[in-house]
């Protein structure tokens, strides 16, 4: 048996200057029934940097009030003029509430990304697993992958209308799991999908979902012999807790 710890993928960390940028909503779109796409613009974007698809920045909500609140979001797509953010429309929460009500011309402050973690190595197959909060990172990742890269996604969304199309040069296989948003804390559909998909060697698995779900998927992979250095798992939100995440799930 090959020892995949010897040349396991490396995580290359880069730091960015932590800055607040003051932007304006330039467009809003109901991308799918449960996803709101916001395009932000502003001169402050001229040096915006995001080196990895699973980067995150802070949306600073009520920035001018006595009690601003911050939530983590993925830079879905960006250039020096525009930054696209996809926000899951879930009940409750200041970020989801803000996105639902956002209108062209509204002001929004963002902070970061503070740093990036790029995964590099001799990877034959990428497996990207997540719920709708991970879809911006997964979509961006697949979109940015070079030609012939083998990538499979397993994404949980409420139904077929919430699936997304991504234009990519990569060799992409998509598996969509359908379950209502209020069942996003159930890992069972992901584990069943994994059981139906034996993983070859040199498969890097990236996971981001509700924290208990992400942990259950990681545990399942480890129990089935996948080495922890070939897995990166994060809890992008925590059921029942506001402003909570578990960004680097370890043993
Ligand atoms: C690195 C990283 C990147 C992320 N990128 C994105 C992104 O691009 N798009 C995106 O939509 N989210 C993303 N998230 C998740 C997002 O930060 C959380 O969902 C956040 O809690 C939403 O803030 P809120 O103010 O709407 O709700 P909060 O005030 O944080 O939470 C209020 C309640 O809603 C629940 N809740 C939070 N999120 C969800 C959900 N998705 N479904 C159901 N219930 C929920 C909480 O458990 C809590 O009970 C990311 C998280 C991380 C850590």
Automatic annotation (TrEMBL):
InterPro entries: FAD-bd_FR_type, FNR_nucleotide-bd, Riboflavin_synthase-like_b-brl, SIP_FAD-bd, SIP_fam, SIP_rossman_dom. It comes from the Bacteria. PROSITE patterns: FAD_FR. GO terms for molecular function: oxidoreductase activity. CDD domains: siderophore_interacting. Pfam families: FAD_binding_9 (PF08021), SIP (PF04954). Residues 18-120 form the FAD-binding FR-type domain. Belongs to the SIP oxidoreductase family. This is FAD-binding protein. It comes from Pseudosulfitobacter pseudonitzschiae.
């Amino acid at each position: 048996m090959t020892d995949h710890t010897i040349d396991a993928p490396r995580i290359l960390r880069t730091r960015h200057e932590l800055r607040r940028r003051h932007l304006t909503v330039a467009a809003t779109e109901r991308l799918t029934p449960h996803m709101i796409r916001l395009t932000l613009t502003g001169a402050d974007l001229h040096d915006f940097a995001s080196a990895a698809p699973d980067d995150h920045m802070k949306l600073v909500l009520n920035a001018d009030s006595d009690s601003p609140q911050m939530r983590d979001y993925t830079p879905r797509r960006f250039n020096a003029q525009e930054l696209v953010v996809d926000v899951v429309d879930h009940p409750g929460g200041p970020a989801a509430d803000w996105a639902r009500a956002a209108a062209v011309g509204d002001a929004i402050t963002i902070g970061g990304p503070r740093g990036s973690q790029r995964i590099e190595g001799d990877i034959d197959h990428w497996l990207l697993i997540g719920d709708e909060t991970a879809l911006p990172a997964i979509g961006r990742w697949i979109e940015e992958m070079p030609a012939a890269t083998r990538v499979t996604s397993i994404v949980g969304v409420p139904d077929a209308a919430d699936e997304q199309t991504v234009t990519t040069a990569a060799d992409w296989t998509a598996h969509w799991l359908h379950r209502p948003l209020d069942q996003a804390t159930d890992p069972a559909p992901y584990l069943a999908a994994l059981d139906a998909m034996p993983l070859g060697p040199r498969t890097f698995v990236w996971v981001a979902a509700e924290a208990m779900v992400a942990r259950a998927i990681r545990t399942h992979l480890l129990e089935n012999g996948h080495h922890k250095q070939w897995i990166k798992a994060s809890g992008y939100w925590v059921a029942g807790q506001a402003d909570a995440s578990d960004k680097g799930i370890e043993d």
